[in-house]
UniProtKB/TrEMBL annotation:
This is Malto-oligosyltrehalose synthase. It comes from Curtobacterium caseinilyticum. InterPro entries: GH, GH13_cat_dom, Maltooligo_trehalose_synth_4, Trehalose_TreY. Residues 14-652 form the Glycosyl hydrolase family 13 catalytic domain. GO terms for molecular function: (1,4)-alpha-D-glucan 1-alpha-D-glucosylmutase activity. CDD domains: AmyAc_MTSase (cd11336). It is an enzyme of class 5 (isomerase). Residues 465-485, 781-805 are annotated as: Disordered. Residues 781-801 have a biased composition (Low complexity).
């Protein structure tokens, strides 16, 4: 194994059959030139035929052949390492894809041989609940009439299922053969309450595996271990650890397998929640950072106006999410709740089963975090038990009876509860409640709490100090393959908090022109249209369908309301075809374009330079106004991105005067991303601490600035309000007095007790300041332009004059080597 490496940044690539590992290897040079330190790959093990995401692994023994196979992964790793880049791979330990049984040898064996299968131990099946059979929910209303017997196999449509040896005889009909199998086809609607294998959330075609068993871990991770033995892969991203029986134990096993490689977990932390300190990992995939970062660019003054504009939206977020979680527990995850209740029957044998099910559903609906990790986090469980008893006094006696088992880390029910609560939280909150709230849809993002409207600058600084002190190598992100809206879409939507009555009036006008009988959804859709503009008609129709059915208020996936959906699609069409609607949207754009541009650049520079390891999701080095998946997984035009980067890096003697040509297009963002990533990669010594910087003057509330130990980030916030107060005026930002250069414009600033923002942010709403010697040492093309003022100079006395703050004095001492 190679020595442990920790990246300064990563660049996420979605590997598919259309953009395979060979294609990924072909953009290694772009990733390197951009300044990213590691290539970050989506899952690459053999997945379901045609899978676009790779989270439905069917065979752990090799790399997906459609994605290029083992040889292509080796070639990519070699290309990345030759370019000085590390390789991070996303892996899926919790479940496998079972939509196509013939593609999954383990699932095929389980169906063919039942409990006698040599891999029966791999799956989490409650055999007693299915009378010794696995229930497979694939039938429609025709039931067994939809099944055919061909060539000794049973077929549902074109999907083949095995038959047990000796169970097919000449003359047998389908019903007879079916009755002899180790599985039972059932109607798909029965999955909600009668399924007897654990799934990934409520996805019937993703069956959970028991990776806590040593044999399952060894078999499912043999290829992964080989990557590290061969030095191909440098780190891992772990998908959905909350679904595992024993996350801490699994991560410890993984730590041993990889030799302690850099490891991240896709863990959703609620506000105030901490990652378990006992886990041998480097941090999360960054949703916790995203939630804070988004909100520091939201105007708190807009809360009342936007809340009023959202109309019929529920005002009690806790009650809303309790109810949506309870709906999931009673609905699509009823099978998981029922299985948990069966484990509790022995501790309360005299209590009717339906009351235990009711109590369990109420308990899982009462969690305020995704799961506990007993004995760590037991207080979250106790809180859930108390909330459930308070909400349902009629179940108080049942909760008292089952509580001791649920808080016992060794009890099977306690372990099952931990696996179940996260499913209910994810489906009830992320995939339901987030679509039932619309006052500002920026707030409805994975890992965020929409009841928290905004975050102050000081609260942001405290969060960064905490991250630097506790999890300095955790990932930070703004966009992922799972975000509900991309960073630039959210940057535009956040502007609405500054518009207040203007947005309220525009929304009312849009509603009158293209009415929809669901005011909350209408608000959500108009914000999506505004945020993603100019998204295509096709993309917006697809988003509207997904958003409305996920919300489940006016239409659903299983029972679509055709009349409502016609009205909804008419709303989308009006955004293109109705001149009056287009005029309203165009007027909004005149304000939102510039402010969204400012927000987009500001939040990106902050994310790339704040504590943690920043990830850039594919294509988001330029503007990307995407919506929820699969919209955010569209192909990326790397040829164009290469061209933009090469243009920025080309010889240019015109100085900062060329920057206005950047305009509102993606060139400005490529400039910001490339300069920030290169600085982190080439000068990590400038990013060793965190010091929030003070601003003074008329517009002090409109700047976010911090010093990372030499690199200083300055970013504009609330740009509409800034314009309304007349611009920066006399506003100063106060870094340690030191002669610095802005890497984005090349301008040089003398050591002083304050830098005028009217001068610093003339061309761009952001600045990245470094000591002069660092700027002069950058490789050709790394600076946007030559320093504009070479006549200024500084001395040690000037740098220290008047500095009384001990933190700043210590900072000066650290920076002496750069002056």
């Amino acid at each position: 194994m190679t020595a442990r490496r920790v990246p300064t940044s990563t660049y996420r690539l979605q590997v598919t059959a259309d953009f395979d590992l060979e294609s990924a290897a072909g953009v290694v040079d772009h990733v390197r030139d951009l300044g990213a330190d590691w290539v970050y790959l989506s899952p690459v093990l053999q997945a379901e035929p045609g899978s676009q995401h790779g989270y439905d692994v069917v065979d752990h023994s090799h790399v997906d052949t459609d994605r290029g196979g083992d040889a292509a992964l080796r070639a990519l790793a070699e290309a990345a390492h030759a370019a000085g880049l590390g390789v991070l791979v996303d892996i899926v330990p919790n479940h496998v894809g079972v939509a196509t049984p013939e593609a999954n040898p383990w699932w095929w064996s389980l169906l063919e041989h039942g409990q006698g299968s040599p891999v029966a131990w791999a799956f989490d099946v409650d055999w007693d609940a299915g009378d010794g059979k696995v229930r497979v929910p694939v039938l429609d209303d025709r039931l067994l009439d939809a099944v055919e017997l061909r060539d000794g196999k049973l077929f549902v449509g074109e999907t083949a299922y095995p038959t047990a040896p000796g169970t097919v005889q000449d003359g047998d009909d389908v019903e007879t053969v079916h009755a002899r199998q180790h599985y039972a086809f059932v109607h798909w609607k029965r999955a909600d309450h009668e399924l007897n294998y654990r799934r990934f959330f409520a996805v019937n075609t993703l069956a959970a595996i028991r990776v806590e068993e040593p044999e399952v871990f060894a078999s499912s991770h043999a290829t992964i271990g080989g990557w590290f033995r061969d030095g191909l892969v440098d780190g891992l991203r772990i998908d959905h650890p909350d679904g595992l029986y024993d996350p801490a134990g699994y991560l410890q096993d993984l730590h041993g397998l990889t030799g302690g490689a850099w490891t991240l977990v896709e863990k959703i932390l609620e506000p105030g929640e901490q990652l378990p300190s006992s886990w041998p990992v480097d941090g999360t995939t960054g949703y916790d950072a995203l939630a804070v970062l988004d909100r520091v660019f939201v105007d708190p003054a807009g809360e009342d106006a936007l809340t009023a504009a959202s109309g019929a939206e529920p005002t009690d977020w806790q009650q809303l999410t309790h109810d949506t979680r309870r709906g999931i527990a009673d609905g699509i995850l009823g099978s998981e709740v029922a299985r948990l209740a069966r484990l509790l029957t022995p501790v309360a044998p005299d209590v009717p089963e339906d009351r235990i099910v009711d109590a369990v559903a109420e308990i899982v609906a009462s969690f305020e975090v995704y799961r506990t990790y007993l004995p760590e986090g037991v207080q979250h469980l106790i809180d859930a038990l108390e909330r459930a008893a308070e909400a349902r006094p009629d179940l108080d006696d049942v909760i008292d009876r089952i509580a001791p088992a649920l808080v016992d880390p060794g009890h099977a029910a306690a372990l099952r509860l931990q696996q179940t609560s996260g499913m209910v939280m994810a489906k009830g909150v992320e995939d339901t409640a987030f679509y039932r709230t619309s006052r500002l849809t920026t707030l409805s993002e994975v890992g965020a709490d929409p009841s928290v409207f905004a975050v102050s600058v000081e609260a942001f600084h405290q969060a960064q100090r905490d991250r630097q002190g506790s999890w300095p190598h955790t990932m930070t992100t703004l966009t992922t393959h799972d975000t509900k809206r991309s960073e630039d879409t959210r940057a535009r939507i956040s502007v609405l908090a500054e518009l207040g009555s203007e947005w309220t009036a525009a929304l009312a006008r849009l509603q009158s022109l293209a009415p929809l009988d669901d005011a909350v959804l209408a608000d959500l859709l108009w914000q999506a249209i505004v945020g993603a503009r100019p998204a295509s008609r096709e993309r917006l129709h697809a988003y509207a369908e997904k958003a409305s059915r996920e919300a489940g208020d006016s239409t659903t996936w299983t029972e679509p309301d055709e009349a409502f959906e016609r009205q909804m699609h008419a709303l989308v069409d009006a955004a293109f075809d109705d001149p009056e609607v287009v005029a309203v949207l165009d007027e909004l754009d005149r304000t939102i374009d510039a402010a969204g541009w400012s927000n987009g650049l500001a939040q990106k520079l902050v994310q790339l330079t704040m504590p943690g390891v920043p990830d850039v999701y594919q294509g988001t080095e330029a503007w990307d106004r995407s919506l929820v998946d699969p919209d955010n997984r569209r192909p990326v035009d790397y040829a164009e991105l290469r061209h933009v980067l090469a243009t920025l890096d080309g010889p240019d003697d015109d100085g900062p005067e060329r920057l206005p040509a950047v305009g509102l297009d993606g060139v400005a963002k490529v400039l910001v991303v490339s300069r920030a990533l290169r600085l982190r990669r080439d000068h990590p010594e400038l990013f060793t601490r965190y010091l929030g910087l003070e601003a003074t003057g008329i517009a002090a509330d409109h700047v976010l600035a911090f010093d990372r130990g030499g690199a200083v980030t300055v970013a504009t916030r609330l740009p509409v309000g800034l314009e309304r107060v007349g611009g920066w005026g006399d506003t100063l930002v106060h870094p340690v007095p030191l002669e610095r250069v802005d890497l984005l414009t090349g301008r040089r600033f003398p050591a002083s007790r304050g830098i005028p923002l009217a001068e610093l942010l003339t061309d761009l709403p952001v600045a990245l300041l470094v000591p002069v010697d660092v700027a002069e040492a950058t490789t050709p093309g790394d600076a946007a332009a030559a320093p504009a003022d070479a006549s200024t100079s500084t001395t040690t006395a000037a740098r220290t004059d008047g500095v009384a703050d001990p933190d700043q004095q210590a900072e000066i001492e650290i920076l002496e080597g750069h002056a």
